[in-house]
Amino acid sequence: MNTTQTASSAALEERFGRQVAARLTAGNGELSHEVGERLRAARVQAVARRKVAQQLRPAPVVLSRGGTAVLGGSWWTRIGSVIPLVALVAGLVAISVMQEDNRTNELAAIDSALLTDDLPPAAYTDPGFAQFLKTSDDSSER
To answer: Which key words are in the record (predicted)?
Structure first.
């Protein structure tokens, strides 16, 4: 968002606020004194809250010459904003390496079990053997 868009939206908000205030003030003469005083007190509180909210706004993001967003200008701020990103990337790489290692270990365990078994590996691909295993599992459950 550039500064002209920010300025125009701020001007629109200001104009809308003034129109609402004028409308409320115009209808103020028809109200009783007690209601008018309560409305005036509410307006004062609203204005006070708005001033506090404006003071608590975060620092604006500044675009540097390179086009990167910086929350200040010091090197410490830039380094502090990059450290979490580096930690995230390092964590993702570590997780990927661990998962690949686990997958390799699982495949090695399966291969060693197949190769050290009494049956030849070709028996596992035989459809008749698969049927034999299903029927033997069904009979053992009874």
So the answer is: Membrane, Transmembrane, Transmembrane helix
The domain total for the chain is 2
d(CA 41, CA 47) in angstroms, rounded, equals 10
pLDDT tens digits for 50-64? 777 766 666 565 555
How many helices and strands in the chain, by DSSP H and E?
5, 2
Q: Model-level pTM greater than 0.90?
A: no
Instruction: Extract the runs of DSSP E, i.e. beta strands, from the chain.
Output: 62-63, 69-70
Q: Residue 72 in contact with residue 61, Cβ under 8 Å?
A: no
Same domain? 66 vs 53? no
CB-based contact 121:114 (threshold 8 Å): yes
Q: Same domain for 35 and 48?
A: yes
Together in a domain, 23 and 73: no
3-state secondary structure of 116: helix
List of residues 6+ apart from 36 with CB closer than 8 A: 28
Under DSSP, the state recorded for 28 is G
Residue with tokens 């028809």, as numbered in its chain: 30
Question: Could you report the per-residue pLDDT of 80-90, keeping only the tens digit for each?
Answer: 888 999 999 99
* 69, 61 contact by CB (below 8 A): yes
